[in-house]
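Tokens in:
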């Protein structure tokens, strides 16, 4: 042990929580309370200990879940256990919004104040909470929630020190904090309730009002998990997805392909999954062989659904051809683009499909290990997946000789994110799993050559993976006949904001935006559409006169907008779009990882400029500010390492050019 630790000591509860997550210490130098006889005679374990760095985030999460924050003593213990210098680990602990290095009460309500929830009264909810409870907890170290007048910390979150200098927190009341999109836009205004303890509680709550929120903070209300019944056989109404009879749109198709099990098959039972056509695709993949599987994906023209639209077959083939081993497959379930919740519906409603598709990918490309990187704000999704993985292992569908196929060993591990949008970027996922700050890597080298732990890695979005099953079962050529020549297949869209029936809808590519909104019951609120945000915060606004826009890659590209992650947030004519734009720019400012200058500085300057325009205090004229915004946008687009900086100006640009929101 050659790192300099702090003096602070972990409590027994903190030690137990960390040990339960990463295993017990092997010697006194990595945290055991007493020396053992072996370490008196031999030096051992240094190399293997350093190889455990990838457990840093899970260990920090264990502390957060046990006591509600990461104390100096708990933090010190994690550094000792994993031989990570405290200064290095501090960079990780302070990177993630769901981890707190400041004292906090055990109960915290994360209230979404992002775009779709704003359209459904989130701002009023936050104002009511400020008035009745006190201001929200700050994000990170010393950062506020953007409200100049809010107190730095809720009065109920006050902590004091006892005679021994230990921090004592008043736990009689909970605290609240604002949050970017929680992936619950269909039940807006939404919140995530987290209660730390020996058995931590994490619940997604929807249609939240101040009275219910106050009840939760006071410990007097039960946090219902609004999602728990999504996908359960008896409760299909919890999501609108099953109402997506897209034959009414095109007349060419009757049944959903990706949502077919949602609400009809029990997501907690592998038997139910197998009673349908579950695991038939894997059996067929074995018959086709790796090249045959990839040929079907190419014939289906399957493009990634995570935003970049890269051909999935080419990606799998590139990994298959690498000689370096081991190879990995990662399911990207980070889904943090504001307005996006389609992957959540699949994760909670059809977890076995994701596991089966990952297994097919592993078979085709020669991967031996899979990871599902799921955002920390999806507790039910993580529980359902964990349950599904355990059942698959018991049934011989994960582990050694999967489905009795000699020589094909494959298993999956879940890694939970901790509140960082950037960790959805594929190389940031690698950094996060490896126990570092989630900062994207430069490309090349590309993940297919040099990915997780420096090895060939497939990264695929949840929806992309679920597409694999009907393609293998029905054939790639048949799948390619759905949609258009350049945009094949069906696509999941997340409808929220002012539509009558928010939810996830599956439609063939080529369906028009107007048809999609009609499918969701039409425009709600005032009934008059002001605009819709297509593709998420990194997307663009479309006007009411553009409802004939066909939802394909080629049509959206020609119109200067994007499909992105399938977001459609509708805004009626009562919504203050300046406020929405300010929230979007705040989002990028908060979520920039800060690694490269154009994005780190540009996202702040962009928000400041927009703020000056909205508060009628432009430097020079509004025209000057718009010119400045254009320059900042160009610098971010051209000079940023990753897609976050490259798209941070997209929504603002479309508001200026397509909505004429800021007439000069
Ligand atoms: C800032 C940022 C966030 C991203 N977030 C996600 C995400 O949450 N889920 C996702 O699948 N892809 C996300 N992506 C895209 C991934 O980098 C990657 O392209 C995708 O996971 C590849 O899977 P696919 O080929 O199946 O689309 C993000 C990209 C950027 C730049
Ligand atoms: S563009 Fe922004 S988010 Fe991406 S690496 Fe650079 S600073 Fe980080
Ligand atoms: S959950 Fe609030 S905007 Fe998505």
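Residues out:
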């Amino acid at each position: 042990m050659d790192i300099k630790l702090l003096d602070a000591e972990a409590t027994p509860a903190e030690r137990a929580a960390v040990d339960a997550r990463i295993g017990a210490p092997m010697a006194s130098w990595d945290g055991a309370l007493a020396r053992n006889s072996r370490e008196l005679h031999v030096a051992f374990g240094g190399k293997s200990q350093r190889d455990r760095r990838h457990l840093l985030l899970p260990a920090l999460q264990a502390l957060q879940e046990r006591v509600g924050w990461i104390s100096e003593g708990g933090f010190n213990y994690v550094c000792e256990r994993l031989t990570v210098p405290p200064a290095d680990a501090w960079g990780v602990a302070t990177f993630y919004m769901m981890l707190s290095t400041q004292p906090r009460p055990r109960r915290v309500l994360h209230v979404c104040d992002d775009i779709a929830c704003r359209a459904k009264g989130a701002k009023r909810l936050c104002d009511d909470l400020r008035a009745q409870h006190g201001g929200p907890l700050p994000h990170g170290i010393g950062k506020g929630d953007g409200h100049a007048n809010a107190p730095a910390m809720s009065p109920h979150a006050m902590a004091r020190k006892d005679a021994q200098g230990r921090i004592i927190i008043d736990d009689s009341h909970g605290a609240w904090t604002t949050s970017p999109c929680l992936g619950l836009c269909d039940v807006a205004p939404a919140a995530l309730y987290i209660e730390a303890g020996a058995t931590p509680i994490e619940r997604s709550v929807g249609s939240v009002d101040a009275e219910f929120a106050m009840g939760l903070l006071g410990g007097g209300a039960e946090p219902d998990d609004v999602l728990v019944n999504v996908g359960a056989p008896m409760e299909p109404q919890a999501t609108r997805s099953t109402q997506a009879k897209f034959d009414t749109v095109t007349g060419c198709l009757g049944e959903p392909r990706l949502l077919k099990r949602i609400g009809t098959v029990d997501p907690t039972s592998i038997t139910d999954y197998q009673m349908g056509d579950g695991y038939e695709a894997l059996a067929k993949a074995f018959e086709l062989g790796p090249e045959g599987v990839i040929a079907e994906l190419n014939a289906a023209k399957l493009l990634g659904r995570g935003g970049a639209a890269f051909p999935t077959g080419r990606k799998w083939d590139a990994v298959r051809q690498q000689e370096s081993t081991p190879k990995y497959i990662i399911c990207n379930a980070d889904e943090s683009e504001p307005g996006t919740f389609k992957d959540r519906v699949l994760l909670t409603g059809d977890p076995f499909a994701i596991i089966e598709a990952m297994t097919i990918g592993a078979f085709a490309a020669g991967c031996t290990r899979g990871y599902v990187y799921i955002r920390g704000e999806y507790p039910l999704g993580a529980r359902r997946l964990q349950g599904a993985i355990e059942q698959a292992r018991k049934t011989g569908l994960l582990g050694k000789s999967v489905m009795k196929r000699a020589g094909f060993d494959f298993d999956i591990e879940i890694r939970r994110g901790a509140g960082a949008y950037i960790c959805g970027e594929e190389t940031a996922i690698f950094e996060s799993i490896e126990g570092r700050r989630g900062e994207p890597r430069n490309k090349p080298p590309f993940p297919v050559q040099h990915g997780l732990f420096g090895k060939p890695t497939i990264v695929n979005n949840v929806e992309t993976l679920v597409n694999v099953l009907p393609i293998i079962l029905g054939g790639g050529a048949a799948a390619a006949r759905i949609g258009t020549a350049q945009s094949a297949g069906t696509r999941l869209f997340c409808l929220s904001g002012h539509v009558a029936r928010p939810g996830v809808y599956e439609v063939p590519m080529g369906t028009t935006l107007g048809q999609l909104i009609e499918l969701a019951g039409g425009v709600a609120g005032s009934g008059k559409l002001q605009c819709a945000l297509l593709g998420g915060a990194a997307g663009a606004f479309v006007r009411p006169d553009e409802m004939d826009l066909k939802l394909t890659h080629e049509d959206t590209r020609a119109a200067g907008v994007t499909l992105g992650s399938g977001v459609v947030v509708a805004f009626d004519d009562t919504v203050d779009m300046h406020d929405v734009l300010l929230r979007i720019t705040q989002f990028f400012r908060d979520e920039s990882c800060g690694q490269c200058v154009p994005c780190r500085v540009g996202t702040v300057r962009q928000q400041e400029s927009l703020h000056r325009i909205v508060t009628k205090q432009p430097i020079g004229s509004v025209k000057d500010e718009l010119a400045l915004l254009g320059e900042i946008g160009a610098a971010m687009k051209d000079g940023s390492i990753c897609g976050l900086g490259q798209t941070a100006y997209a929504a603002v640009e479309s508001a200026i050019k397509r909505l004429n929101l800021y007439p000069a």
